[in-house]
Automatic annotation (TrEMBL):
Pathway: Amino-acid biosynthesis; L-leucine biosynthesis; L-leucine from 3-methyl-2-oxobutanoate: step 3/4. This is 3-isopropylmalate dehydrogenase. Residues 5-366 form the Isopropylmalate dehydrogenase-like domain. The keyword NAD applies. InterPro entries: IsoCit/isopropylmalate_DH_CS, IsoPropMal-DH-like_dom, Isopropylmalate_DH. Keywords: Amino-acid biosynthesis, Branched-chain amino acid biosynthesis, Leucine biosynthesis, Magnesium, Manganese, Metal-binding, NAD, Oxidoreductase. Gene3D superfamilies: Isopropylmalate Dehydrogenase. GO terms for cellular component: cytosol. Binds 1 Mg(2+) or Mn(2+) ion per subunit. It comes from Hyphodiscus hymeniophilus. The keyword Manganese applies. Its cofactor is Mn(2+); Mg(2+). It catalyses: (2R,3S)-3-isopropylmalate + NAD(+) = 4-methyl-2-oxopentanoate + CO2 + NADH.
Length: 379
């Protein structure tokens, strides 16, 4: 009987709200006969992270949460941070995210950029004709680079060392190759665009060299191009479709370009992510699944878009639970929930994409569409 232990960490502000909707969708899937007849069950354990953990335990991430996470099949996480705790003091909610990624050795962060339903392409700030058909993945190195380099902080001088070992770059390049093959499907592997600032930074010259060597030796059939980070910022807005495939980034570039990609597809509320410790199928360690967005403390309660977190839960089913058919059903349900009524959709949209639906109404719409989708499954 496939039973999955999932640690649910809502976090702060909109975190628990959006995670609550993802849990609602998981529970609806679990209860549906198409899934329950396969005896799938999710054992959910809830705990605190970030500001909530500071308030309860005095630290943003407790050793107990780390231990629970390591023993789980997956962690479903919302977002942390907010003005109550600040982001410059010694105790910062945000360190919990980095420390948990590191503790789980989740070195690959997969952040897809795709409009989740044809009806919402018009919600993008970019012209619909430019954004339609955009389908790339920002693959972000997640446990190294400037985030984790040696740090010095004094009142008048500070630095964060941006360093990489060749092996750290090689393993993320291999993940890019894995994703390029998956993304391209029967048509053959999609291209990889590797991002650096090799014209200025030594760390980026190593990045470019390590990616090229592992490419030439192990997957020369996959098209690979290098793109400087500044011109990538331009291309992503002007012609995002031209990036379709895998956009391979180090940690800081991946942080920046995943937010830019989210804006282009219409909202941070459409940008899910999976943080993995190995190539899916080859290694089974705890994955961490989280929207790319933050805790959005500027939003009133029940106004956030939960789609990115629901999509992250679908990625969890795909990568940590081998439940691709349920993940596919959730993705289709999201598309139906968002799509125009004239196209057969439910046309439920939150404020970030020009609608007025609440977080819970958006989640309810996905649940209702999911039932329709799962009802169609025979066998
Ligand atoms: N993974 C994380 O926990 C994470 C990620 C990013 C930022 N943060 C933290 O979140 C706090 C706020 O940061 P920020 O404002 O720079 O980034 P943010 O991602 O929280 O918000 C940026 C903008 O996008 C909007 N937004 C974000 N998610 C949304 C959603 N699901 N639905 C609708 N609108 C959404 C917000 O209202 C805001 O206008 C900070 O403390 C930051 O450190 C945490
Ligand atoms: C909160 C912060 C530590 C985090 C990051 O920079 O990785 C966030 O911005 C993200 O993109 O997940
Ligand atoms: Mg970010």
């Amino acid at each position: 009987m496939p039973s999955f232990n999932i640690l649910v960490l809502g976090g702060d502000h909109i975190g628990p709200e959006v995670v609550g909707e993802a849990v609602k969708v998981l529970r609806a899937a679990e209860a549906h006969p198409a899934v329950s007849k396969k005896n799938v069950s999710f054992n959910l354990d809830h705990d605190l992270l970030g500001g909530q953990s500071i308030d309860a335990h005095g630290i943003p991430l407790t050793p107990e949460v780390v231990e629970k996470a390591k023993k789980s099949h997956a962690v479903l996480f919302g977002a942390v941070g907010g003005p109550k705790w600040g982001m410059t003091g010694a105790l910062r909610p945000e360190t919990s995210v980095l420390d948990l990624r590191k503790a789980l050795n989740c070195w690959a962060n997969i952040r897809p950029a795709k409009v989740p339903s044809p009806g919402v392409a018009k919600c993008s700030p970019v012209k619909e004709s430019v954004v339609s058909g955009t389908d790339f993945i920002v693959l972000r190195e997640n446990c190294g680079g400037v985030y984790f380099g040696e740090k010095k902080e004094t009142p008048d001088y500070a630095h964060d060392v941006w360093g990489y070992h060749r092996w750290e770059i090689e393993r993320i390049a291999r993940m890019a190759a894995y994703l390029a093959k998956k993304h391209g499907g029967a048509a053959g592997p999609s291209k990889i665009t590797s991002i650096d600032k090799a014209n200025v930074l030594a760390v980026c010259r190593l990045w470019r060299d390590a990616v090229a060597k592992v490419h030439d030796a192990e997957f020369p059939e996959i098209p690979l191009t290098n793109q400087l980070s500044d011109s990538l910022a331009l291309i992503m807005v002007k012609n995002p479709r031209s990036l379709n495939g895998i956009v391979l980034c180090d940690n800081i570039f991946g942080d920046l370009f995943s937010d830019e990609a989210a804006a282009i597809i219409g909202s941070l509320g459409f940008s899910p992510s999976a943080c993995l410790a190995g190539i899916p199928g080859e290694e089974k360690t705890t994955g961490m699944y989280e929207p790319s967005h933050g805790s959005a403390p500027d939003l009133a309660p029940n106004k956030a878009n939960p789609i990115a977190t629901i999509q992250s839960a679908a990625m969890m089913l795909r990568y940590s639970c081998d439940l691709d058919f349920v993940a596919d059903a959730i993705d289709e349900a999201i598309s139906i929930a968002l799509d125009d009524k004239s196209a057969g959709g439910l046309e439920i949209r939150t404020g970030d994409i020009g609608g007025s639906a609440s977080t819970t109404e958006m989640g309810d719409a996905v649940v209702s569409a999911l039932k329709q989708v799962l009802n169609k499954i025979k066998d």
